[in-house]
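Contributing new records

If you add data, match the layout below exactly. Sequence lines come first and carry their own label; structure lines follow with theirs. Keep one chain per record. Anything else will be rejected by the validation script.
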Amino acid sequence: MKSFTKAIALFSFVVVFTAFGYSQQGLKLGYIDSNEILSLMPETDSLQQELKNYANYLDEQMNTMAMEYQTKLQKYQENVATMSDLIRQTKEKEITDLQQRIQAFQASADQDMQDKQQDLFNPLIERVKKAIDDVSRENNYNYVFDVGTGAIVFYENGDNILPLVKTKLGIK
C-alpha cells in the first residue's frame, strides 16, 4: 500500500512537472547515476576494503562464539545422562545464556556494520552531492534527477551530467 501511494505520488509529480516543463522554455533538466559516480571515486575501493575488514573481524568474533556454543552443547549432550539435576540445569542455563549472547551480538554487529558504513561513506557522499550541486548551478540546470536511487524518471530529453561531475571531482 505504501509503495502504491509512493508510485502514485511520483507519477503525479512527473505529470505535473511535464506539463510545467512544456510551458517553460528555459527549463533545463539533467540526470545522473549517483551509484555510478560513487563507484568511480578512487576512495571507494579503500573504503570498501576497510568495511570488508571490519566485517571479517566481526565474523571472526561470531565464529568464536559459535564454536564455544557447539563445544558446550556437544559436551552437554555427551554427558547429560550422567549429570545430576543441579549440574544439568546449570549447563542448560550456560548454553541458553550463550545462545542469547550470540543473538545479541549478531544484532549489535549488524547495527555496527551500518554505522561503520555511514561513517566511512558519508564524507564521500557529501563530496559527490556538493559536486552535483556545483555542476548544476554552473550549468544552469533547473532539475537533476538521480536515476541511481531506483526512482524511475523519464529523462530522454535531459542531459547526463556524469561527465561534468567526474571532471569536477577529478575523475577520468
